[in-house]
Amino acid sequence: MAPQLDGYFQKVDELSDKFIDRLRQAVAIPSVSAEAARRPDVVRMGQFLADELTKLGASVELRQLGKQEGTDLDLPPVVLARYGNDKSKRTILVYGHYDVQPAQKSDGWDTEPFELVIKEDGRMCGRGSTDDKGPVLGWLNAIEAHQVAGIDFPVNLLMCFEGMEEYGSDGLDDLVYAEGKGFFADADAVCISDNYWLGTEKPCLTYGLRGVNYYNIEVSGPGADLHSGVFGGTAQEPMTDLVRIMASLVDSEGRILIPGIAEQVAPVTPDEEGLYDGISFSMETLYESLGSKTTIFDDKKRTLMARWRFPSLSLHGIEGAFSGSGAKTVIPAKVIGKFSIRTVPNMEIEKTNEAVVRYVEEVFSKLGSKNTLKVYPQHCGRWWVASPNHWNFSAAAKATERVWGVKPDFTREGGSIPVTLTFEQATGKNVLLLPMGSSTDGAHSINEKLDKRNYIEGIKLLGAYLHYVAEEPMN
Ligand SMILES: NCC(=O)N[C@@H](Cc1c[nH]cn1)C(=O)O
Ligand SMILES: [Zn+2]
Ligand SMILES: [Zn+2]
């Protein structure tokens, strides 16, 4: 089956230095969507992709999305591209994002985050290497390897690459819904490569994601930051209120203390109980990914359930708080606490928001503080669970076995890619998550990396998947 694949694989190996260089160029563009000052770099990264795709012969459009909500900042463009328009072939729509999480060497990185540094053991370190520049470039590299090998591209490829995923995909949903019957109308299925294997050796295909509701809690009081010697003990301090509110959201065992959250979670079914044992996942690999043994649970099943099918609440930070080294004796006038809830079936965005706002206001009112509180969701994206019983998943499973020599696990994921559900609803087609990187890649963390092996074999995997898609009978 898929007879041209050996020639394709050989060409990917031959071109591997060129493909790594393409990733090096992409990592060097600090396309951090969360930082206003970096917006020109995000736009530059979109342009880089558009130029590379144009050179490969794709037709490319940079779609403007208007202003970022509540700001004067232009949103970065969505790169929409088409490669091939042969009515006798299937059409696959792929999505990825070219923005990255913030990173600074001083966060604790061993090397400059926006320089791709290749270690002797094959780790390619750099912000965005695995999330999501490596996988996005994987599609471009697959096109190039086919061209150089002289192998006919097996499908028509539609591409949608956005630059705001790490900041809530502002503006993308409207575009995807609008183009469901437009630019994306020909799509027979959707494939997203923006997640990770559960461990470091066994590949997986993913059919579920948690959603995310991200919140701000603002507490303000004094008109300006104050000297704590002069005003300590006389002014009510916003940070004191905020820390007490934040401490009331979740306990050290990860239990969410907000009434109205656990009540929305779908009960565990007997069928589901048996699902976890068959999954290749070890606590040892988790400890390696975590860099410590500080897990809430000691066993695989409860750990996987906590990641996939129960909600979690994480405290992320406090804007306006002193966080440098040294000993600044300030009372911050206004602080904004940031936290998010990863949501699961059958939680509803609005119901969850209402429960959060009600609870935070109640806790604050019990403090008897004269400060002012505002609590509001910053962005929300729904959870997604799909059926893996579809030719899209069968093709990916065959490709995985061909490239990695092992049948993939079928997994869910704790992270969120809210546009996944939007693609499913807008196109009415099956969506598959086909990861390239592994659990130790450290996405969003310091020293993010993509192993050279996962990048190169991942390029083979994406191409092989398209060949098997072309061979699958419709179901
Ligand atoms: N690779 C997917 C990913 O990292 N998604 C982000 C999405 C997000 C939501 N709010 C901010 N980023 C995630 O954190 O899961
Ligand atoms: Zn991502
Ligand atoms: Zn991410």
TrEMBL record:
* PROSITE patterns per the UniProt record, alphabetical: ARGE_DAPE_CPG2_2
Instruction: Determine if NAD is one of this entry's keywords.
Output: no
Q: Which Pfam families does this one have?
A: M20_dimer (PF07687), Peptidase_M20 (PF01546)
The UniProt keywords, alphabetically, are: Hydrolase, Metal-binding, Metalloprotease, Protease
Record's SUPFAM superfamilies? Zn-dependent exopeptidases
Domain Peptidase M20 dimerisation, which positions? 207-364
Q: Give the InterPro entries listed for this entry.
A: ArgE/DapE_CS, CNDP/DUG1, Cyt/Met_Dipeptidase, Peptidase_M20, Peptidase_M20_dimer
PANTHER family to which the protein is assigned, alphabetical: BETA-ALA-HIS DIPEPTIDASE, CARNOSINE DIPEPTIDASE 2, ISOFORM A
Instruction: Give the similarity note.
Output: Belongs to the peptidase M20A family.
Q: What is this protein called?
A: Peptidase M20 dimerisation domain-containing protein
Which organism was this protein described from? Remersonia thermophila
